[in-house]
From TrEMBL:
InterPro entries per the UniProt record, alphabetical: Ald_DH/histidinol_DH, Ald_DH_C, Ald_DH_CS_CYS, Ald_DH_N, Aldehyde_DH_dom
Domain (Aldehyde dehydrogenase) ranges: 13-480
Keyword Oxidoreductase annotated: yes
Name used for this protein in its record: Aldehyde dehydrogenase
Keywords from the named record: Oxidoreductase
Entry GO MF terms: oxidoreductase activity, acting on the aldehyde or oxo group of donors, NAD or NADP as acceptor
Organism classification: Bacteria, Bacillati, Actinomycetota, Actinomycetes, Kitasatosporales
Length: 485
């Protein structure tokens, strides 16, 4: 049965004024469900509902907010099997990825910020002795810095993970006492409806969480320019982030931006090549390369360059491409036909620029679905567009370098700076090199992430940091309180 959703505004499920649009399974090209087309007025109504709810929600006890977030996490876990099936259907993620990296992470983030709601918001400051003067008599002034909620937060999320990404915005925003308007990516919004239903069942008050969707930019634009919105948290492309930033700048709305990436993986002559190949190879398999943190730009020192290319090519040969619902599938489809065509156009561009297609490069022979073969491009140079631009698909480019200084220079020769990686048997060198990389994160001999570490980018990869307690800081404002001692 096809799912037909409604908007969630002010605690009520509301018929959309613009009708519905189809959400398509990228593996089968079948319709998964119908998502609402919110009008501009309805989006502004959602923001107004969030504004009205803010006064009460921001004054609730942290324990009450924590209890609601914890109950919501439990409800998400209770219905995990159904959530996994839905996430797989609308994203094309494999069953294992939908289960462990989408639904499980989404639930875990609500649990994390249930605890986060109880973290102290006050920081005592040293007393200051003031001499007599125009400001008054001599005395000692005490002070404390207190984190307060920002207000109404618009959360605009990306299509590559409709559980972890929205949860990473909604949960810390609510934990800090903010109210939210959630605008998911148009390609896979249905999972976010399931998340909001869990929050509703958990007892979140009316207006604290509002959910609007739309297939065109209008709904997102309204969620950004509403006068009731105080902050915009966005995950997506750098181009869209820049447009949002321009709108926010006119009214000085707060921003949290997690944008594009073209992660460099510096592989030195003394690296464990098998470990490097396993890490880099996740680009092909993990969300079919639709992840901004992927090490898509491999910088290989010449001593191991040819062996690394050979090992990466062999790795791609073992990756099964196909239906993400089938056991053994490693690489599923990309999100849409338009995105498949975009990724394929980059592969063709690479050929024209002089890159050598070592593996992949042709569309998989499958009857239906938006599939792209894992593709490895070698003989690349720093000026090629395939090296400089984010492809957001299962494509890896390899550029050789001679020495440490050249490797660092090549890594920094990019508009992006989200996460870079260094593989070297000399750990001291790896940390030394990492310290010189202009990126928000550096993986040393690993692609793993510490989920309490700050996450965000330098340069055009974003503004601000979240994850762990840093997310609580991102969704709060500092207030100074001063008193005479």
């Amino acid at each position: 049965m096809t799912i037909t959703e409604k908007l969630y505004v002010g605690g009520a499920w509301t018929e959309p004024e613009g009708g519905h649009y189809e959400v398509v399974n990228p593996a089968t090209e079948e319709v998964v469900g119908l998502a609402p087309e919110a009008s501009r007025a309805q989006v502004h109504e959602a923001a107004a509902a969030a504004r009205e709810a803010f006064a009460d929600w921001s004054r609730t006890k942290p324990e009450e907010r924590a209890a609601i977030l914890d109950r919501a996490a439990g409800l998400m876990a209770r219905d995990a099997a159904a959530h996994v099936e839905l996430a797989r259907a609308e994203t094309g993620a494999t069953t294992a990825t939908a289960r462990s990296m989408q639904v499980a992470v989404g639930s875990a983030r609500f649990r994390r910020y249930a605890r986060g709601a109880l973290e102290p918001v006050e920081q005592a400051l040293p007393p200051q002795i003031s001499e007599a003067g125009p400001m008054g008599r001599a005395g000692v002034l005490g002070a404390v810095a207190v984190r307060r909620p920002v207000g109404v937060v618009t959360c605009i999320t990306s299509y590559n993970n409709p559980w972890a990404n929205p949860a990473g915005k909604i949960a810390p925003a609510l934990a800090m006492g903010n109210t939210v308007v959630v605008k998911p990516a148009p390609q896979d919004p249905l999972s976010v409806f399931a998340m909001v239903r869990a929050l509703e069942e958990a007892g979140v008050p009316a207006g604290v969480v509002n959910l609007v969707t739309g297939s065109a930019p209008a709904a997102g634009e309204a969620a950004v320019d509403s006068p009731d919105v105080d902050m915009v948290s966005f995950t997506g492309s750098t181009a869209v982030g820049q447009a949002i930033g321009e709108v926010c700048g006119r009214t000085l709305k707060r921003q949290l931006m997690e944008l594009g990436g073209k992660g460099a993986a510096l592989v030195f002559d003394d690296a464990d090549l098998d470990a490097a190949v396993m890490g880099i190879g996740t680009t092909f398999a993990f969300y079919s390369g639709q992840i901004c943190t992927a090490p898509t730009r491999v910088l290989a020192q010449r001593g191991i360059h040819d062996r690394l290319v050979e090992k990466l090519a062999a790795y791609t040969g073992h990756l099964r491409v196909g239906d993400p619902a089938e056991r053994g599938t490693v690489v599923g489809p990309v999100i849409s036909a338009a995105h498949r065509d975009r990724v394929e156009s980059y592969v063709e561009l690479g050929r024209k620029e002089g890159a050598r297609v070592v593996a992949g490069g042709e569309r998989p022979d499958l009857a239906k679905g938006f599939y792209v073969a894992p593709t490895l491009l070698a003989d690349c140079t720093a000026g090629m567009r395939v090296v400089r631009e984010e492809i957001f698909g299962p494509v890896v480019v390899v550029v050789p370098f001679d020495d440490e200084e050249e490797g660092i220079a090549l890594a920094g020769d990019t508009d992006y700076g989200l996460i870079d990686y260094v593989w070297s048997g000399d750990v001291a060198r790896a940390f030394r090199v990492g310290a010189r990389l202009r990126s928000g994160g550096v993986g040393i001999n690993t692609i793993g992430r510490n989920m309490e570490a700050p996450f965000g980018g330098f340069k055009k990869s974003g503004v601000g940091r979240d994850v762990g307690s840093y997310a609580l800081h991102a969704y709060s404002e500092l207030q100074a309180m001063v008193w005479p001692g």
